[in-house]
Amino acid sequence: MKSTTFHRALTAVVLAAPIAISTAHAQTSSMPEASGQEAVSAHSTLVPADRKFFKKAAIGGMTEVAAGKLAVAQASSAAVKAFGQRMVDDHTKADDELEALASQKDFTLPAAPDAKHQAMLDALQAKQGEAFDTAFIADMKKGHADAIKVFTAGSQSKDSDIAQFASMTLPTLKDHQAHIPMSGMAMSSIRSSDAPPTL
Questions:
Q1: What percent of the chain has pLDDT over 90?
Q2: Is the pLDDT of residue 138 over 80?
């Protein structure tokens, strides 16, 4: 009886061993993933707000450059074409500075606009002449209002390099906003109001 009992106990231990080993292995396998996530967080030099600034600033900047190139090629108004060229020049310069700063902070910028901004560019590209001018001006108004919010937040970053870059870029964005051309309809309205009354 004692021998039978011993063999049964031994068999139970042997059968249970693979389950215990398997469970231990599963628990051990999951540990590196958790510790890896902690390591990434521990070594990150940017807080979420700064990462958000880099992402939004990059997407906004590349969108302005692309829209500016479309304006140079497709606008009917000389003022819109000139403003488009300024978008290309100024935002390319700002984008280069942003990329250098992001590299310094070991942050990879988006390589292309997100779906929302790409849809805006696609819609703009489908237009020509005055229809393009109207859509471009509306996009510039919204885009620069958004950019000023993003860079205002960036100027308040606790990272002094990011805060300085955002603060130095803000005046250019505000100047862009102040000099967005009027649409053809608005210009016609001004001309009509300036015309002498007919007798």
A1: 68
A2: yes
**What residue spans define the domains of the chain?**
1-43, 46-193
Report the amino acid identity of residue 29.
Answer: S
What is the identity of the amino acid at 61? G
Q: Are 83 and 140 in contact (CB under 8 A)?
A: yes
Count of alpha carbons within 13 angstroms of residue 40, beta-carbon side? 6
Write out the two tokens for 77: 């108004």
Residue 44 has pLDDT above 90, yes or no: no
- The residue with tokens 């007919």 is 198
pLDDT of residue 196: 52
Backbone angles phi, psi at 75, to 5 degrees: -75, 155
In a 3-state reduction of DSSP, which class is residue 36?
A: helix
pLDDT top residue among 146 and 20? 146
Cα gap 110→98, rounded to integer Å: 12
DSSP annotation string for 157-199: -SSHHHHHHHHHHHHHHHHHHHTPPPPHHHHHHHHHHHSPPP-
55 within 8 A of 109, measured Cβ to Cβ: yes
Residue 48: predicted pLDDT: 96
DSSP 105: T
What mean pLDDT comes out for the span 36-57?
71
CATH homologous superfamily, domain 46-193: Ferritin, core subunit, four-helix bundle (1.20.1260.10)
The answer, as to whether pTM is greater than 0.90, is: no
